[in-house]
Records
---
Amino acid sequence: MWIILGLFFCLSANALESFDRLANIKILKVLPNNVVMLNRGLEDGIRRNDHAKISHELNGYSSRAICLKASSDLSYWKIYRVPHSEVFSMDNEYVLTGIGDKEIPQRVSLWMEKEGQFQEPEETSKKELGSDPFKISTDLPEKLTERDLIEPVGLDRRKLYVEQAWNQEQFKKDLSTYNLSLFASPFMRQSINQAESLRYGFKGGNLASKYRLLTQFEQQQTQIKNPVTKEVVRTRGTNGQVQFVIHHLTPSLSSLSLINYNSQKFSDLGTPSSHWQVGVLGFTWHMYDSKTWEYMDFSYIPLYDVRKTDVIKNGQISEYPKSGLRHGLRFGMKSRINERVAFENMLWVRPYQDLASWMIETDNLNLANDLKFIVSLTENLFFDYNLIYQKDKIWKTKSGLPDSNTINSLNLRYDFSL
């Protein structure tokens, strides 16, 4: 009895858990009623009634399925959702990712109550061994020429690298679905002026795996009224970003292009009154990912930096312009603690380089670190805690303000698709 229970618990423990990932998945057979046979089974931790997502990294394919039956090296899955059927192919390799049972729709959960009825394919007959079963046959030609090497490759493989990276049809398809997030912070406190503020904005992006476009806009507003003099002081901060990525030029490398805009207004003093950073081309190295770590990557992009800062001289406000090159270094990571809780951190370090002297100012880093804890309340509604640390040399040297600022905010965020 104890042996039977032990085997039962061992089999249960090896089932496909939420966020477990199995790579190199092949579809071996397609059966009636949306049932497919995959090349993974009990030896890979797959059990009957496992719930999973089948996805393809490059084509953006995604489907959900429930395991109906598993043998040592094979498994049969009932597919109940196929958003992109045009890329469903036996020629592709997929990734199988475990999903929690609570996400199974009610109509589909009936498949878990009894074993699904489907007809397994008949075993193919073994080939005749012939007179010499140990003879090894080969399909390679005795002599290779240049034409032999070029023609089998096909037109697509002979394209230039730029042509391979840019696919207009794929670009239109990737941008056809665009997700938008609206957020507002009913509470925000920053150390630079000990003021409570309002923070709001939006963030948009697509979830495609090749061409990704990210847009972001954020504004902070603060109003302080002196109870004695009745003087009102207002501050306003505006941040915007457009980012374009061609994902996976190689398995571990993606391109990065971006435009940043920032302005900070303290009463009549703008520091900066406007600040643009434009990066035409950079690269992102994908360092690590797993079932719990959605990404961990490092980016470098040269940024053309144009900044205008208000300076007080003899009681008058004048504008101080400065332009140069910044070396944008970004380290980002995101991890899921469980199905509802995740954290994300984005660190930017941007040392300034003067274009005239080519000297790099190691103390002028324009540093920003954005730490975020994310709690999923519903499928579309999220609660975030945001801690932002900023360090800017020019705040102190040109405006007489502290050179660092810390922002704490609680955000409510709602996601939806356009």
Note: The helical segments are 2-13, 110-113, 146-150, 161-165, 168-174, 393-399.
---
Amino acid sequence: MFLGRTSVGPILRFLSSYLRLEPKDFVNLSYLYFGTFVMRAAAFAGVAVMQHVMYPDTRDALWKGLLFAVYPLAEIATVGYFGTLCDRIGRKRILVFAHLVTAAAVFLFIPSLGAPVGIRPYLVAVFFAMFGIGAAAKVASTLAMINDHSSLSNRAQLMAFFDLVTFGGLVGGFGAGFLALNALGTDAALVLLVGGLGVTASVALVYFLVRETPFVPEQRGTWDLLRAVLANPDIRRLLPVYIPVVALYGYVISFTDKLIGVQSGAAQVGKLIVVVAAIGAPLAASLIVGGRISDRARMRRPFMALGLACFGGLAIVISFGPTVDELYGRWPLVAVLAAGAGAFPPAALAYLGDIVQHSVTGTTFGIYSIIFGSGLIVGPILGGALTSALGSLAFAVIALGLIGVAGVGLIFIREPSKAPRAPAGMEATAPPARR
């Protein structure tokens, strides 16, 4: 025991110093990040099953997009309420609820696999709604807790780790479920069982190990808090930037099997792993490195612009080489573009943290989740309609159009203030007016 403590102590102190956190704050965030990764991975393995058993035919692409849109609709409908609850009663209770409702959705889907085909879409819609409710509570509470621990010197880095565990869990869980179902022929019920057990483990982790972060309880009601946040012009300027990016993200999640043709066999699986690694590894590295540089420079907009440009380039490469064999032959270019695309998420989330007023932190990140959910509605529905008409070329049309809109919107947002963050319970300084 003594050796274990002496070996871990220096590492803990180094990482805490590197991220400019107190050791106890670093430990709390570590549990929060790990719980988020486990929940996302297990939950999106369940999403892969839902996508697999519902509307496998390309002709049903529009209906598939409409079904997936239930998820963000439920998120949008409830996230404002959960965000205000974070400011009124605390973050942790909302966090635990998020993990619980997600676990229930995964487990309940198992017996529904034997339901009649005509009834199954309605059951899946209910489960997607539960996922949306869980996502609403999860994003609002988790981002509020991260922002409570952050400052201008480490905010983008801490948001980068949130992006890393979220997207890592999504890609890992959805990718593992996708491969298990399509390449390995694993039974759907087994994939759901493993996913449900994973989310259950995350419930225990956040309940017993994650501690509440300091906050000052708000006395204002839900609508008053929402109005106070939406009155901030800097948050409104984010809408045309973030919604198109998330719409593209939602389209990719909904139509992965249509964008990349996957055939069975060890050779195809090996090439697919190389392609996924060429996207995932540089993306993960750029999240961390880009977040640190953004914090050191106290700038967000240049990193958001770089991410948008590379995201658009990656979209072109994928749309004009949609098979695994073609992407495998272009993996160096894919890796470079993925590295640049990773600059966007931490800078965008840090920007929101820079402009947030501490008394409405949960509500503000609830509004962020509304933005995220709106994009997930636009992407699958628009993608479903165009995929049915244009096939893989639809990805290029959608990607370039959405990235173009986001790029124009980026021109009008203001660089956040470089003033120190306001202490808990006080209002943060707004970005200076552009001259």
Note: Residues 59 and 389 are 10 Å apart (CA to CA).
